[in-house]
Design goal:
Strand order of the largest sheet: 11-10-12-1-13-14-2-15
CATH architecture of the largest domain: 3-Layer(aba) Sandwich
Largest sheet: 8 strands, mixed
Distance between the termini: 22 Å
Number of helices: 15
Strand content: 15-25%
Radius of gyration: 21 Å
Number of domains: 2
Number of strands: 15
CATH superfamily of the largest domain: Alkaline Phosphatase, subunit A
Helix content: 25-40%
CATH topology of the largest domain: Alkaline Phosphatase, subunit A
């Protein structure tokens, strides 16, 4: 049996008046999603435990089969391993975003204009993070270049008790109420404020402004955590597999799970990502002998954070047509029995621009066990109507893989 997981990040949403009171999933044309719902098992999974924030970190841990209440220790350690940064037990890692803040006010009075600095390029970002590390790095603190706007700060021997806010949660808001809080808050706030003087007039940003692009004029520190201990898929399920994602967080969770990360040219984490390249890479690794592949697509989530309704619908339709359709056709022709799980990790409502914690829809199709659920669609409402709910979302993976649910 081959196991194929497709995660459309943040696809779940609320009904919107501009979409005739439908959600983005309900409004989108998704014949291949709906075929899975009709021929498989449709339901809901509570991927975010009640006591944890609704992030892609906790949600993807759940989808992969790990209880976040047991294994979650913070977001950035997953990104650290993806970047090849080895954390010691004394280290705390932090996400370090390059962001765009408003211009003329004192630092604390500035507004979060753009949490991703206009999707700054890797080349530009590397130059800016190098400048930050030269000016702010020390024997205690290192800055590491990541992907586009997503980077890393590692602090040796500091507390992991912080109150930190993701920048995508405060788009358009004054940052004063959301600056880092904790025992060393003054030092982190000073670093963020100093980053403004380093970055605002940097040649990279001067060129961006000349081109009409948002400058990456500040760092934003959040997502603190220590290195977790997670059993591998080989230990937990007896499976060898791969993870495909443009997001270091998801690749990092996969690495901790013993999954092999696969790089795909043109995978961007946004609506312009290489959908076909990602699904072809997944199919190839299954043909080459792996039993399991976890394919994550960030685009719908990014569109929600930017309040881009049309692009979110387009991203969902592209996943339906370019990923799910191709996966079904190729797997049907492969001669292997296979199971396919389609799921969204969490809600990212377009009306809010951030994540929420409701149970998310999933569909499981098994090639050797076709169902007949006429009229089902892959959406939030139809999934709820089935009455099937995994209250502990991490147990869905055991169910999908045919393992005993404890």
């Amino acid at each position: 049996m081959k196991y194929f997981v497709i995660v459309g990040d943040g696809m779940a949403d609320y009904p919107m008046e501009q979409l005739d009171n439908k959600t983005a999933l309900q409004h989108a044309r998704t014949p291949n999603f709906d075929r899975l719902a009709n021929e498989g098992i449709l339901g809901l999974a509570q991927t975010i435990p009640g006591d944890l924030p609704p992030g892609s970190d906790t949600a993807n841990l759940s989808v992969m089969g790990y209880d976040p209440l047991k294994y979650y220790s913070g977001r950035s350690p997953f990104e650290a391993i993806s970047l090849g940064v080895d954390l010691s037990p004394e280290d705390v890692s932090f996400r370090c975003n390059l962001v765009t803040l408003s211009g003329d006010q004192p630092y604390a009075e500035k507004t979060m204009v753009d949490y991703c600095a206009g999707e700054i390029s890797n080349e530009e970002a590397a130059e800016l993070i190098a400048a930050v590390n030269t000016a702010l790095g020390s024997q205690e603190i290192d800055f590491h270049t990541g992907f586009r706007y997503r980077h890393l700060m590692v602090w040796h021997g500091v507390t992991d008790q912080w109150q930190l806010t993701p920048p995508h949660d405060i788009s358009g808001q004054k940052i004063s109420a959301y600056l880092p809080a904790g025992k060393e808050e003054s030092r982190v706030r000073q670093m963020m404020e100093k980053s403004w003087s380093i970055l605002a007039d940097h040649p990279v940003n001067k060129k961006r402004v000349e081109k009409g692009l948002n400058p990456a004029n500040s760092i934003w520190i959040w997502g603190a955590g220590r290195k977790p201990l997670i059993p591998s898929y080989a230990e937990k399920y007896g499976l060898e597999g791969s993870v495909i994602s443009a997001v270091d967080l998801v690749k990092g969770i996969g690495l901790f799970a013993g999954l092999t990360p696969l790089a795909v040219e043109g995978a961007t984490g946004y609506i312009d990502t290489n959908y076909n390249g990602k699904v072809r890479a997944a199919l190839d690794v299954l043909k080459q002998g792996h039993d399991f592949v976890y394919l994550h697509i960030e685009a719908p989530d990014e569109c929600s954070h930017r309040f881009e309704t049309e692009n979110k619908i387009k991203a969902i339709e592209l996943i339906d047509r370019e990923v799910v359709k191709v996966a079904r056709e190729e797997m049907d022709q492969s001669g292997h029995d296979y199971s396919l799980l389609l799921i969204t990790d969490h809600y990212t409502p377009l009306s809010l621009g951030t994540h929420t914690s409701e149970p998310v829809p999933f569909a499981i199709f098994r090639s050797n066990d076709l169902k007949s659920n006429r009229g089902c669609r892959f959406d939030e409402s139809c999934a709820a109507e089935t009455g099937l709910l995994f209250r502990e979302g991490f147990r869905l993976m055991d169910y999908f893989l045919g393992r005993k649910i404890e």
